[in-house]
């Protein structure tokens, strides 16, 4: 009989996904809950036991958790490990959850101290380790779209450095709370031509500084004022402008030698993929299971699942 | 007896200011109302008559209005005049208000078509004409802080070109509706050191593209996360970052030969002045009465007030 040797949980801000791993590292069964750390009403240990029961894990099966569950606001704080960082460095930073009815380890986040301000990630480091299982020591630039998109440099089996862009959250705030949104249709469908036009506007302004974005955004309003942009197309143009500007900055002056790896293929990932290719940079999409492969890689390196 | 020969009104989105001019162009008396075009409850003509009565203007005294009152949402649309533009060009664009109990002319706005999207101003063109009364044909870069800050090039008695930056409005939206605001104290006083630090961060990123702003803004959060920025100082740092980035882009690679003219000395104007000088560019502050001088210059050129 194939036994569950590890329960892995990707426990984020608003949701969680839990997996039961077999001894060969494959996912035997999985479940999810809308109870991210900001939506918890009871003890973490109780919910984890509920997940383990549902996944059919025995009382001795260890659990490995990643994501915001390890933040100051989560179950137990697992401090950030500073980049560059290897799998072993991450394993050293694992912390045990207190008062847990089974052995529970929590994955630390990563920080970068290379810029004028620090940068942080939590959860993505586990995906990156999963990704490195397939690319090995190769050099790659990885784009992880989301509310706060991460751009990560991998090389030599290490997470070298990374940067966050709050493009998704800024887009929503500007759309819903400035004059720009007033001339946009609610719930307009994605308009590929308007998105491409926004990317082109960003490309044209590539030689300008960070402040140019505040000028370019005003153009979303004025194009509408001169009837050169309809209310249905305006959100897509603005999205193309912001994502295009982000990608141009993240790529830097020298395009990467290998295709950019996009983590997440649907929706937002597809927009990033389109914009990167419009800027002349080839992309590939990461496999969907890199989070679980990362959890397994960490668990094995930590001796948590002998497999 | 000195008679009122012109009533001038700077009629904006949320407020209006009205002036009675004597034959020598001096302002004899003035008044204001919190009834910008978005707060009107009755006909424009009725409110104008009320203002004229209060200012002691006779029934034959003409009125000249500038600002959003000339927009599509105002009393009557006075179309945009495309830059470069002279005083005469602006006068040619004046339109008569309909059904007015006296002779009422409305000043057109300006548009620029030099960028990837059009740009517009309405109201500032009148201030600029007032400013040109004192600088003549000189070459100047003018900074007009506000919700949508305008940067304007003047030369040879013409308004050559301009750009808007939605820095003020974007700041408010990002502060009130993203994760950045969650670690900021409500109503914190201006922190000069934090503001300067933000300007320096923008300066450091000068060689990066427009998208860098979305990365730099995330630093406001992470500095707080690492206890390197207090909640009282965070809004000022973000303000310095955004205003600094705007100014660096507006100045371009070549600093202007003459000091930048800042329109508006209090509050926001002082921040722009500080940031520009921190970036190595000297500034001067425009006289406070340039709006009234602009109204008078336009009225005279239009033969509205023979003076």
From TrEMBL, chains A, B:
The keyword Kinase applies. It comes from the Bacteria. GO terms for biological process: D-galactonate catabolic process. InterPro entries: ATPase_NBD (IPR043129), DGOK (IPR007729), DGOK_C (IPR042257), DGOK_N (IPR042258). GO terms for molecular function: 2-dehydro-3-deoxygalactonokinase activity. Pfam families: DGOK. This is 2-dehydro-3-deoxygalactonokinase. It comes from Chelatococcus composti.
């Amino acid at each position: 009989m194939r036994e569950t040797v590890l329960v892995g949980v990707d426990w984020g801000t608003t949701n969680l996904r839990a997996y039961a791993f077999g001894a060969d590292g494959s996912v035997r069964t999985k479940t999810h809950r809308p109870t991210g750390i900001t939506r918890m009403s009871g003890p973490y240990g109780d919910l984890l036991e509920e997940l383990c029961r549902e996944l059919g894990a025995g009382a001795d099966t260890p659990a490995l958790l990643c994501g915001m569950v390890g933040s100051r606001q989560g179950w137990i704080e697992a401090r950030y490990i500073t980049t560059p960082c290897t799998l072993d460095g991450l394993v050293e930073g694992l912390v045990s959850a207190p008062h847990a009815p089974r052995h529970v380890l929590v994955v630390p986040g990563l920080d970068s101290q290379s810029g004028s301000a620090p940068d942080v990630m939590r959860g993505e480091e586990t995906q990156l380790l999963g990704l490195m299982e397939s690319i090995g020591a190769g050099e790659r630039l990885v784009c992880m779209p989301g509310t706060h998109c991460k751009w990560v440099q991998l090389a030599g089996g290490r997470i070298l450095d990374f940067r966050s862009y709050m493009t998704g959250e800024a887009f929503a705030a500007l759309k819903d709370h400035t004059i720009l949104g007033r001339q946009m249709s609610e719930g307009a469908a994605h308009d590929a031509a308007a998105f491409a036009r926004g990317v082109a506007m960003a490309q044209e302004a590539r030689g300008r500084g960070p402040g140019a974005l505040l000028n370019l955004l005003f153009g979303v309003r004025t194009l509408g004022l001169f009837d050169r942009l309809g209310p249905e197309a305006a959100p897509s143009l603005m999205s193309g402008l912001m994502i295009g500007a982000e990608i141009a900055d993240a790529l830097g002056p020298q395009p990467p030698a290998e295709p950019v790896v996009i983590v997440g293929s649907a929706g937002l990932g597809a927009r990033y993929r389109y914009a990167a290719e419009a800027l002349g940079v080839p992309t590939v999409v990461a496999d969907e299971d890199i989070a679980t492969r990362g959890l397994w890689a960490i668990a094995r390196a930590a001796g948590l699942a002998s497999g």
